[in-house]
């Protein structure tokens, strides 16, 4: 395979704009619909039982098909996969915005998830093969990391604005201009390095096992939230997921051209990154949910005001990613950005456990969000880069898919686990304080806040664990390749220069 650094694409910085735009659209879509959901439910007459499927249909298709999407981009070509994903995502969004009944909306959400699973790994792997020089890679991943981290918050803001001033349907239609601009831009500017495509055949048994296993796992956590952890259906899904994923690993060891070459995940640095990102996603997704409910239900903020309340966190995420992570990535070992970054975010979360019925936004919520944003931005930046660093060019798509998979599965776990913890703490508080309560409504609110606070304590603990994983397992040091090609078997790696070198 040729030396990829010798063929730096002159249009790569323009390409970054369109890759980042597509990534923003995918991340944004994970949260933008949440705020619009009550309006869509009333408009289309969606039952309470089916309401969660508007979120779940997207999560299942996206999480279940990510590895498949990543491998398709390696085999079929990243640019082609990227553009196909964009066009499909735009079409699915148009169907969702025009939905006239529950089935049409749920089908559109599943289609969005499926095309998102093509799009997200292709975007990240394009960055991995287009930017191979250490300094350039740091800047490119700084932009990408900032967008990946802040997109969820932007989704909350846009969701609030559209729902309040336009219509819930615009939370779907907004994707169309994003996708069209990114697709035309990608066609004009992206040129994949020659020899970076994988010529193997597609591992069909691997695709079936991985997709069914991941869908069972994500759906298991969704069912745990609604039916309880000990329900027969929930346990059955977890058992099915464990069996399917174990069989998948056995198959991947034996087939000639595996869907997920195990060298991608057994590398110590990448394995550490995937686990720490999954743990961080558990904490972050849970927190977004509780803080949104706290501000809207307890503090009576409007959807727009709720979205704007998250703006300072987004600003600090972008600052942490572009000004700290990107500047220090080539000077400081990744663990010393990821570990302290996640710890700083955990301190911010600990502040947010102090919320009460009349907590001051400026004194408690704002400092907590600022610390979280700065910490997450600083940690996300090297994590995104290290996840694809040193991997062979022909495996860049599937390595990128693992980043998205760890975040998606982490998000599903976080929503279910922390929701269950919050609900249990709320019920216990209500029962134990019922006797002396002067106002039922006041006690209900106090119980809710106690539940949120308890769940946020757990989230802070999980984020601390994420920092420890990064400090222990991510061992890429200054001047030393961060799990370079030598650890991945034969063949040229995506990077000819160590990202962690001075």
From TrEMBL:
Its main location: membrane. SUPFAM superfamilies: MFS general substrate transporter. PANTHER family: BLR6921 PROTEIN (PTHR42718:SF46), MAJOR FACILITATOR SUPERFAMILY MULTIDRUG TRANSPORTER MFSC (PTHR42718). It is a multi-pass membrane protein. GO terms for molecular function: transmembrane transporter activity. It comes from Streptomyces olivoverticillatus. Keywords: Antibiotic resistance, Cell membrane, Membrane, Transmembrane, Transmembrane helix, Transport. CDD domains: MFS_MMR_MDR_like (cd17321). Residues 15-478 form the Major facilitator superfamily (MFS) profile domain. It comes from the Bacteria. GO terms for biological process: response to antibiotic. The chain crosses the membrane at residues 15-37, 52-70, 82-104, 110-131, 143-162, 168-190, 202-222, 228-251, 272-295, 307-324, 336-355, 361-384, 455-474. This is EmrB/QacA subfamily drug resistance transporter.
